[in-house]
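User: Fold this; tokens only.

Assistant: Input:
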Amino acid sequence: MPERDGYIAGVPCWVDTTQPDPDAAAEFYGQLFGWEFDDANPAGSQHRYLIGRIRGGDVAAVSPQPEGAPLGAVWNTYIWVDDADQAAAMAREAGGGVLSEPFDVAGAGRMAVLADPAGAAFSVWQAREFRGARIVNEPGSVNFNVLSTGDPEAARRFYGAVFGWTTLDLGSGEFWTLRAYGDYLEELTPGTRERTAELGAAGFEDVVAAITPLAEDDTLDQWGVTFSTDDADATAARTTELGGAVLLAPVDAPYSRVTVLRDPQGATFSATAFVPENKDVGRRD
């Protein structure tokens, strides 16, 4: 897939993880996914923002936990918007919350930290110089952002109002969709819609994220991140070698093989390998 240079409004565009020890986290993810890191902040800056790259293309970032934040590492999802202030106002009107009012991030862009009505936190990003992940959907880069929710109907109302998202049920799972995104991908890579239909997943090119029920032992709605890998089993094994943990051993899923992992400081994430022959796994009639 071509290297990205920006997104359209309503599409997840970036992820970062806040960690008690960002250097240790960079070491872990560098060895797991092959990322090379560079501090995006000027030398001598009080805060560090370590951007992980593949072939020089931005993939994700590691940063210290904000002062006063609860202990525990997390992955954060950013959604591209044209106007961060307007997105914050729309989130309030739709019953969500504003955890951090819109603010400028030097010349990189403007952002706000928001929450849906159930408390799932996410950020919105109004780009200036920084245009989100350059590399996606290839091993070591972001493949999906996933909302785990205990009230899918309320989530549909909120995200539909704020971002114009609709949902698609392929019989094996539910996904957030934005028709304009499929059009954008078709323009970026002609033939995308045709190739998706040939795989038996017509409409999947419009997908911007996934939606899944909360796990039985989870009580909080939250956004999570899934990274692509060549081999889910090898990634799970490597995670334990590096001091992390496997929360869900690799299993076959529609079009994929997936595992749920936890890094050494507690941030959870998933890794998935594309397996076309698994297209009917778990599919409902």
